[in-house]
Design brief:
mainly alpha; 13 helices; single chain; about 0% strand; globular
Length: about 375
């Protein structure tokens, strides 16, 4: 697998890009800027995560210039490991929250056509053209034809694997609602979200993670880069997001639930560090490290996602012109971050500085470049329908 182990998220589809205006919860109408702001923050963290892989001794990515500074490598490795525990789940949670409303509004056919346009085109473009060119930029020694032959052998969509999985989940949800249609009008009254629901979800994610990683350990490769080893987390949080949108949950996240989730996630993350530093047995199987990692991942994915969601609801539910522009450009920034980041890193490769120092300069350039290029492209009439 050639892409980074950091969750490659953010695009919870273009509905997530329009998070400030899309309505999901039946009891809260109008703008929800906190989702757009949260998405922008997660995109920035994804870019930083891929830079940690670029300059640190962790994970896999198109371009490497690894540092030999042990302190820097410990920090970057911890950042990547912690991100893998929750970030993908949080992106799918946001996607789930923003799925029922457009399905209701557009109907199954219109919804699937919209997803094919906004998810399918970027996915195919990355699979066929963009990611091979990114790898060629990172390492031109193999030549154009060899790079594309390798891509056809591996069918690696790079960071856009998330988009492919989201298309599958969205189609599955449409199929489910074809069997059990939504009511004509959104009607709360399904009962409140209880702590037992969240404990059960965390346990289900942990159990599913153990079972899946018996066959597909962490960082194992599959055709189309499906990241099957992360599916329990992704599916569990997507389902929670859908249920929250249909039943009026999580908007807002109850204060006690937010705080309890945050403390539980912190405790689980610290416990997981014990498993990670002892051996590579945490990647999968029935070793105690793998079992502890799965249990901690379920807790962190649920608890920390709720904590962050509640935090942004309470403190970042507003958007000025810059925040609005960045929210609109967030999906495009995620799509473009691989070529932008690699191009800047390759350009900086001849500069006689330690990798950890380059990180300090390349990081703001990659973030600014990704969002700026995305914003410019979304000004174009044809492109804006996709990005």
């Amino acid at each position: 697998m050639r892409e980074g182990t950091f969750p490659n998220p953010p695009h919870a589809d273009r509905a997530t890009t329009e998070a400030a205006t899309e309505v999901a919860a039946p009891h809260r109408r109008g703008r929800r800027a906190y989702l757009a702001n949260l998405k922008v923050t997660l995109v920035i963290l994804v870019i930083l995560g891929h830079l940690c892989i670029t300059y640190g001794d962790v994970g896999s990515w198109a371009y490497h210039e690894a540092s030999d500074n042990e302190v820097f490598n410990t920090v970057t490795g911890t950042f990547v490991a912690l991100g893998s525990l929750f970030a993908m789940g949080l992106f799918f949670l946001i996607a789930g929250m923003l799925t029922p409303a457009p399905l209701r509004r557009k109907g199954p056919g219109g919804f699937l056509r919209d997803r094919a346009l906004r998810l399918g085109i970027p996915f195919l473009a990355y699979l066929i053209l963009v990611y091979p060119l990114v790898e060629l930029l990172a390492d031109p020694s193999g030549g154009l034809s060899a790079t594309f032959r390798e891509q056809w052998d591996e069918l690696d969509p790079g960071p856009l694997w998330f988009v492919g999985v989201l298309m599958l989940f969205s189609a599955a949800y449409v199929g489910w609602r074809a069997l059990r249609p939504l009511p004509a009008e959104e009607e709360p009254g399904h009962g409140p979200l209880l702590p037992g629901h969240l404990v059960g979800l965390a346990a289900a994610i942990a159990a599913g993670t153990v079972l899946v990683r018996l066959a597909f350990p962490m960082n194992s490769g599959q055709p189309l880069g499906l990241h099957l080893w992360q599916w329990p987390q992704c599916l569990g949080l997507f389902a929670l997001g859908v249920a929250a949108a249909e039943r009026g949950w999580l908007d807002p996240v109850p204060t006690r639930m937010r705080r309890a989730g945050g403390w539980a996630a912190l405790a689980a993350a610290l416990m997981m560090m014990a498993a990670v530093v002892t051996a590579e047995s945490f990647l999968g199987g029935l070793a105690w490290q793998a079992l502890l990692t799965a249990a901690c991942e379920g807790t962190v994915a649920v608890g920390f996602s709720l904590w962050l969601l509640g935090l942004f609801q309470s403190h970042f539910d507003h958007a000025g012109p810059l925040a609005t522009a960045m929210g609109r450009a967030a999906f495009g920034a995620y799509v473009l971050q691989a070529p932008v980041l690699v191009a800047i890193a390759v350009t900086a490769s001849d500069i006689d500085l330690a990798p950890e120092i380059k990180f300090l300069f390349v990081a703001p350039a990659a973030i600014a470049g990704s969002f700026t290029l995305s914003w410019l492209l979304t000004r174009l009439p044809g492109v804006r329908r996709v990005l």
